[in-house]
Amino acid sequence: MTSVPVIGVLALQGDVREHVRALTDAGARAAAVRRPGELAEADALVIPGGESTTIWKLAEAFEMLEPLRLRIKEGMPAYGSCAGMIMLADRIEDGVPGQQTFGGIDMVVRRNAFGRQVDSFEEDVDFAGEGPVRAVFIRAPWVESVGTGVEVLARAEPGGRIVAVRQGPLLATSFHPELTGDARVHAYFVEMVRRDGRER
Ligand SMILES: NC(=O)CC[C@H](N)C(=O)O
User: Could you give the domains of the chain?
Assistant: First the structure.
């Protein structure tokens, strides 16, 4: 891998542009990914916030579901925010009937979990010991439970719910750091990608 990793942003639906900007601010090269050929050229992938049911259906229509599952299985670093977190979950609760994910993180994610109480809110969370990060939650999921290989990186009130996790090269947040102009979460992911490149 070159020293500046190419990080794809899955551009089927969601806030793609904001992730491209945050990745660029964090020192990576970002490229929109819609097709299997574009995926093959990316060192890593960000799955944006948006609507997980739409991302799933479009991934099927664009024949991206299986190629993405395969890359994740092969160890490609990936980061999902909000709907992207849902897409990286091995199991989901409150999905629509038949809803599928790419999977990869051994966790159960509850869709729209915070959304039933309040559609949108912001809170400072301590992310991976980096100090307070402003977290924007929009009809956000929370992580109901994690397997033993999953590291919890942040929790939010109410209830100390898990809102950020990492399992090896996979990172997921319930919130949207791409909307705040603070690129620390993206920088954390870019560093994960750089380390992964050095270890291969
Ligand atoms: N802001 C978001 O990404 C919301 C996620 C959305 N509720 C879903 O199920 O995908």
Answer: 6-199 (3.40.50.880)
